[in-house]
Write a structure and sequence with these properties.
- The chain contains 3 helices and 8 strands, in the order ββαββαββββα.
- The strands form 3 sheets. It has a 4-stranded mixed sheet, covered by helices on one side. A two-stranded antiparallel ribbon has the order 1-2.
- Helices cover 12% and strands 24% of the residues.
Length: 177
């Protein structure tokens, strides 16, 4: 948005520097072509469709989505069997279409300006179990079977990596329904 401070993106779905210290250093980076390097997967081609371009989604679904100014919808990713919230990513209509039809989660990278399928470079894939739209149409809940770490820092979740903020914990009043 205009006037908003620019945020430095350091990883998909997470903000802030990788954590070290008691949790250990972040995973080592492997140089392309160096020892331990994997062959680079093909990039998922594409750019977000310009405004007015027909959506690849079912028209009824496309009409229900409330996108931000960049044409994106927040996608909360949750482990399907435990309910653990893993990360937050962003999808445009094409990324959502690829997720719904391909069985693997695809996001739009705001920093790289390209589509990326979770796990293609890290091996930490997300296999789709279900996708739901919230009541306002501005957020998706993507339930997955997560392989390995969901966060680029190497932790299971991006919220583990980000850390607890120390909120005051409240108790429900007795007799409250």
């Amino acid at each position: 948005p205009a006037g908003a401070p620019a945020a430095r993106r350091v990883g998909a779905g997470c903000r802030g520097p990788p954590r070290g210290g008691a949790r250990g250093p972040p995973p080592a980076r492997v140089r392309p072509g160096g020892p331990g390097a994997r062959a680079a997967p093909p990039r998922l081609a594409g750019r977000p469709a310009p405004a007015g371009t027909p959506s690849p989604l079912d028209p009824d679904l496309a009409a229900r989505l409330r996108r931000d100014a960049s044409g994106l919808v927040a996608a909360v990713v949750q482990q399907h069997d435990t309910g653990e919230v893993l990360m937050l990513g962003w999808m445009d209509d094409e990324a959502l279409h690829r997720t719904l039809t391909g069985g693997r989660v695809v996001f739009w990278s705001r920093s790289r300006q390209e589509y990326w399928r979770k796990g293609d470079t890290s091996g930490h894939a997300q296999y789709v179990k279900s996708v739901a739209l919230d009541c306002d149409g501005d957020a998706l809940l993507v339930r997955v079977d997560q392989v390995g770490a969901a966060c680029h820092t190497g932790t299971r979740t991006c919220f583990e990596a980000g850390g607890d903020l120390g909120a005051v914990v409240a108790e429900r009043p007795e007799g409250a329904a």
